Amino acid sequence: MHADDQIVVGPSKSAASCREVALDAETVRGLIRRRERQERLSARAGTRWQDSGYVFTTADGAPLRPDYLTGRFRRLVAASGQPPIRLHDLRHGAATLAPAARTDLKVVQAMLGHASIVLTADTHVSVLPEVAHKAARKTARLVLNAASARGRQLSD
Questions:
Q1: pTM of the predicted model, to two decimals?
Q2: Per residue in 130-141, is it b (16+ CB within 10 Å) or e — as a string?
Q3: pLDDT tens-digit series, residues 45-91
Q4: Which among 4, 29, 122, 148 would be 20 to 30 A from 96, CA to CA?
Q5: How far apart are CA 27 and CA 33, in angstroms?
Q6: Domain locations in the chain?
């Protein structure tokens, strides 16, 4: 949080908010490159370097202000030519894509740090049209296969 021109770090919203985050190999490689860049910045900054412990910082190691990140994201989206979205919408997007990648909803709940799976399902997960169509095809196939196995043909 940002207040009175200071970065204010507070407690997590809930016990479920404190969690380990599983990362894919490409993200880990990106974070390693980021750490290497910070080591170069630290060497250049010398005694001016602030060892804030953050992954993404200013050139002197200070934490980035949340409003800076929001504005930067907004500018990047505008430059991309894509429809406008908020930074927080990426969270909803990830929650929607995870089940499309056959991730169990309980895992999505843990990824998002929700105490309740109901919050995850009702608030953060949307069903992509492709996933809905695939589910319809698979369900129809089950019914048709069951009818065929019993020697019955479903009429039009």
A1: 0.68
A2: ebeeeeeeeeee
A3: 999 999 988 999 999 999 998 889 999 999 999 999 999 999 989 98
A4: 29
A5: 10
A6: 1-87
